[in-house]
Known about the structure:
single chain, 6-stranded mixed beta sheet, Immunoglobulin-like, mainly beta
Amino acid sequence: MDSVKPGKTYLLRLINAALNDELFFSIANHSVTVVEADASYVKPFVTDTLVIAPGQTTNVLLKTKSPAPDAAFYMLARPYFTGMGTFDNTTVAGILEYENPKNPENAPLFKPSLPAINATNVVANFSNMFKSLATNKFPINVPQKVDKRFFFTIGLGTNPCPKNQTCQGPNGTKFAASMNNISFALPTTALLQSYFFSKNGVFTADFPDSPLHPFNYTGTPPNNTHVINGTTKVEVLPFNASVEVIMQDTSILGAESHPLHLHGYNFYVVGQGFGNFNPKNDPSKFNLVDPVERNTIGVPSGGWVAIRFQADNPGVWLMHCHFDVHLSWGLRMAWIVLDGKLPNQKLPPPPSDLPKC
């Protein structure tokens, strides 16, 4: 229970620390002003309901009522989910109360109205509210031209159930998850270590730039839902390349929102929409003026999202779904960003006393 003073403005720092749930969050009879997302300022906007994906952060301003109401107010959080599997739909609660209530024993306790668990339209409208400040004091550097373009499908799939195991996928199969139908396997030797010391046989630099077998991504799913399993494929980028990635949700085993997180970088969310991405029409609608800067973004359920970033941080960087269960099923890939020409554009060596994997 949190006690507040009337007529004050409070900064609330929020993070979704759940393993497998995007969350709606609301405070009864109160609105908040969103001012930050993933450690980047945004154009302030007012909302009654927040949507936060696992790993995402946001700062909001809460302006309390004056005079103090003779009441208390629930702060509630509940999952947003559109998939086909089972999940925990528990609503968690805290209570906001004002200091020195006049009649605390009989004060009413108000409850906010949260969106439906599958309210994708609410999530989309909320996500579209985010814009960067894009001012002289807080400029942005969204790539206007693109050197490398990628199209990644994001979704679930299946694999044959291993012998002597019980699997919970459709028709006794084993659940899997993939990007461009590649279910990524973490090697026993660290990727960064293998790359820096040029160790062969740990990974291959042939992650597909686009799906190997295109299909109607958000329409009727294909009959074959098997994914390529147990491979460690990476994508190699020249230093300082400007990169655009379209991430497309698929309907295989049900359309579902996937919060994608990129290590080592922030990126700009330049566009998003429902259905299949249209490479002829959709890029003309991209926001290259004040797109929000983030490190985690939800790929819309039954839709797509477009991001851009400048590959100016050499090293090996994972990009993965922030649902822990999907991560364990292989919904991840890795970028290798090559060194630049200058000394400060090169990957530094590991410390001499660092234990090797």
